[in-house]
Specification:
The complex is a heterodimer of chains A (about 280) and B (about 325). Chain A is an all-alpha fold. Chain A has 11 helices and no strands. In chain A, helix 8 packs antiparallel against helix 11. Chain B folds into 2 domains: about 60 residues; about 260 residues, MetI-like fold. In chain B, about 80% of the residues lie in helices and about 0% in strands. In chain B, a hairpin with a 4-residue loop joins strand 1 and strand 2. The mean pLDDT of chain B is about 90. Classes of the chains: A mainly alpha (about 280), B mainly alpha (about 325). The interface between A and B is large, with 87 and 91 residues.
């Protein structure tokens, strides 16, 4: 074999390998979603949305867990989003090159990837220990701590995409900075900021580790934010590891619900950011 | 005369308005800065609460906490050696299988894929990152682990039976769950993170450089291997570290498939535990201050490890960005 042939051969092998790698990546996505569909769809039924989690051996649903997840995610987002947006505003509008902003940016990026179980431990020490019991509020705070870095990061990125000429035009008309930001920059970046919020909802609705020892779980319907509250991820965790067939089926149904929700949110977020850039 | 008075009154009013807007401006800046500072406060509070919570255990065991393998809730002797080993081992396996595949996907996405395929393919890989860790866990426990137990692990045991050294790594029985299974699932989970950084840094390579190499007659692979990878080295390491940070701290997926056994087995087919899995499994059941405190100490340890790894990743990626502007 000549050197030329050898090089061509090597090239072909390497490129084929990278194609195979891409297929492997896709394969896992298909395999996981496929399993979820097969096991989850057969476990779906209307009682999921009408009954609470059952005792072993009984029929039941997931409504208390769905409710708990929705409520805690909602409050988590309500607390975390304003913090994230305002902090992101500081970084983008006032902190292009000051050391404080650089530090905040650095730390935020680390919090973004930090293990979520640490957040669970932190909120346990912060709220559960002083209060003396697990509670939905503790779960909410834990989730909001996960929301903040996501929203902060996307807000900063999106505000940076707003052209400075818009800011200068507004300032030239005599608008003070706070009006420039709130009336012009926020509006221009609105779809991007909403994307960040959607992504954080997606992130939060599947988080299990931070809820394990904050909200804990509750077998019954409960709307008391000061008491432990059922939530989908923890129910899935407990039911999937149980020896009872009914519970495992419910776990699969819950897993399917969560995953479909998250994928829909992810795709919606993508469409939202894709459209304006396509128009430009 | 009256006109002058009027204009003076007007300018006084304007002055007042300007004053008010200036104040609002300062207030706006102060509020946003307050929330930016809150991020640092959160980090500080996390560190303080973890240190405080782990003090009883650290006082009792001292440095032995890191080196003791025993983990006995009854006699209240706790050592972090087995979870540390499990965390490092599963992450190492994840990196061994995850890095080549991620690089392959990134090369495919940047150099090979036709334009129409790039976006959907990239999105599909990123969706892997959106799937919550508990879904990986339940899938791992009911689908992946039984598959490994039936098909892959007996094969590994048979193949390496007579190979010295390696046969202790792959010593029997095939449990299905264990260090290897957890490591492989982590390997899948880090794919989207490493791939997305890798793809981004690959795209920073100036077309001029690549075209020069092509012009000299280099094959696509030679361009990737000799131009793209050397040019993006720092960024690639950053991406790998980012993936490593994720793998080290990953909790739920690992908790499902690791087996939660506080011991160090030479075989990677055996059950073990990781720092995060120990906390997730035992924290709500922990009775007694020392037990709880030992688990918080594990959390502190995990935080220090992941913080260091992620900080290094970040520094490398920042350096990469800076260089991208100056080098040609």
């Amino acid at each position: 074999m000549t050197l030329y042939e050898r090089r061509k051969m090597k090239n072909r092998i390497a490129l084929a390998a990278s194609g195979v790698a891409a297929l492997i990546g896709l394969f896992w996505l298909v395999a996981i979603l496929g399993t979820l569909l097969v096991n989850g769809v057969s476990a779906l039924s209307l009682t999921l949305f009408t009954e609470s989690t059952p005792a072993p051996g009984n029929a039941g649903g997931l409504i208390n867990a769905i409710f708990g997840s929705a409520v805690m995610s909602l409050f988590g987002i309500l607390i975390g989003t304003p913090v994230g947006i305002l902090a992101g505003t500081y970084l983008a509008e006032y902190g292009k090159s000051n050391p404080l902003a650089s530090v905040v940016r650095f730390i935020n990026d680390i919090l973004l990837s930090a293990p979520s179980i640490i957040i669970g431990l932190f909120v346990y020490e912060l709220m559960v220990v002083p209060m003396g019991h697990f509670s939905a509020w503790a779960g909410t705070v834990a989730l909001s701590l996960i929301v903040i870095p996501v929203v902060l990061r996307t807000t900063e990125d999106m505000l940076n995409l707003v052209p400075d000429s818009l800011r200068e035009a507004a300032a030239g008309l005599g608008a003070p900075k706070w009006q420039v930001v709130s009336h012009v920059v926020y509006r221009a970046a609105r779809s991007g900021i909403v994307t960040g919020i959607l992504l954080s909802v997606a992130r939060v609705s599947g988080e299990t580790a931070p809820l394990l020892f904050t909200a804990l779980n509750n077998q019954f319907w409960s709307t008391d934010m000061n008491a432990p509250m059922a939530n989908l991820p923890v129910v899935i965790f407990q039911f999937a590891l149980s020896p009872y067939e009914d519970w495992r089926n419910l776990a699969w149904a819950g897993a399917l619900l969560i995953t479909v929700t998250i994928l829909v949110l992810n795709i919606a977020a993508r469409l939202l950011t894709a459209r304006p850039s396509a128009r430009q | 005369m009256s006109q002058q008075a009027e204009s003076m009154a007007l300018s006084a009013e304007i002055q007042q308005r300007i004053q008010r807007q200036r104040m609002l401006d300062r207030a706006f800046r102060a509020v946003t800065m307050f929330f930016a500072l809150l991020v640092l406060v959160i980090l500080g509070a996390i560190i303080i609460s973890l240190v405080e919570g782990s003090l009883p255990a650290l006082k009792k065991f001292g440095w032995n906490f890191l080196t003791t393998e025993r983990w006995n809730p009854v006699t209240e002797v706790f050592g972090a050696r087995a979870p540390i080993y499990g965390t490092l081992m599963t992450s190492a396996i994840a990196m061994i299988v995850g890095i080549p595949v991620s690089f392959g996907i990134a090369i495919f996405l940047t150099e090979l894929a036709p334009e129409w395929l790039k976006r959907p393919m990239g999105t599909a890989i990123e969706l892997l990152a959106g799937i919550p860790s508990i879904i990986y866990g339940i899938w791992g426990l009911f689908v992946f682990a039984p598959f490994l137990q039936r098909n892959i692990q007996p094969l590994l045991i048979a193949v390496f039976e007579d190979v010295p050294v390696l046969n202790t790594f792959f010593a029997g029985p095939p449990y299905g769950i264990g260090i290897l299974t957890a490591g492989l699932i982590l390997g899948i989970m880090v794919l989207p993170f490493i791939t997305s950084v890798t793809r981004d840094v690959f795209e920073t390579v100036p077309a001029l450089l690549k075209e020069s190499a092509y012009g000299l007659g280099a094959t696509t692979w030679e361009v990737v291997w000799q131009i793209v990878i050397p040019y993006t080295r720092v960024g690639l390491v950053g991406g790998i570290m980012l993936g490593l940070g994720r793998a080290l701290g990953e909790t739920m997926a690992v908790t499902f498939v690791i087996g939660n056994a506080h011991r160090i087995s030479p075989s990677i087919l055996a059950p073990g535990t990781t720092i995060s899995a120990s906390i997730a499994n035992e924290f709500t059941e922990a009775v007694g201050d020392i037990y709880t405190s030992a688990l918080v100490a594990l959390g502190l340890l995990l935080f220090v490890i992941t913080f260091t790894v992620l900080a290094m990743a970040k520094i490398m990626l920042i350096r990469m960005q800076r260089n991208a502007g100056t080098r040609t």
